[in-house]
Amino acid sequence: MFGLFNRKKEPNYNFSTIGTDMHSHILPGIDDGAKNIGDSLLLAKRFKELGYKKLVATPHVMADYFRNTPEIIHKALGQLREGLLQNNIDLDVDAAAEYYLDETFENKIAKKEVLTFGPNYLLFELSFINPPHNLYEVIAKMQDAGYQPVLAHPERYPYFQNSIESYQQIRETGCFLQLNTIALTGYYGKGAKQTAEELIDNYCIDFLGSDMHHLRHADALKESLYLDRVQHILAQPQLKNLLL
What we know:
By secondary structure, the chain is α/β, with parallel strands linked by helices. Helices cover 36% and strands 15% of the residues. The relative contact order is 0.17.
């Protein structure tokens, strides 16, 4: 029996209704996303094809792996903007970052050495293995410093899955939740897919993000457009992408 959320086959869906993608790794050569400007431009073209008008690039900032600074990020942003201009790709691109919750992140918050998007939105992520012992403390520190916390891809943290109450408690602190749209295709596995569906059904998602690293992500993002739940969330009133 076909339920409410089965696949549709209409081919004209796109992401123009939200306009902006606020989580991608499209900047060239500074994290595990685009390796060079050629990769960046290929991804930019795919974003355009999918209906996006604006991107906020969010390269990783992690103490042990990606020690990106605002200066490094802005330099890569300049390279991307120049490449888009030279190749006549009409896409507005800004940059923030995706910060890993570690001790260096707390220091950056205290010193206000972080990159934000929109009205001081601050994107951060957690370990995929170990639950954070100080999540609520760090959320409060962000807020006290004048930032609006946005938790990246909450559906991917296995220790929160199967507990919608955990997500609701996080959101009740004032922290927004950003879903990776491709989770709904099963790209990250069954657990992430089911959790993503439950978050949407409970109106817990504030931002949709592509988390685009490479063309496989672009393919999955296009596939997601045929899912009823994606069309459902694109119409939900709490989504804030269009305000960026």
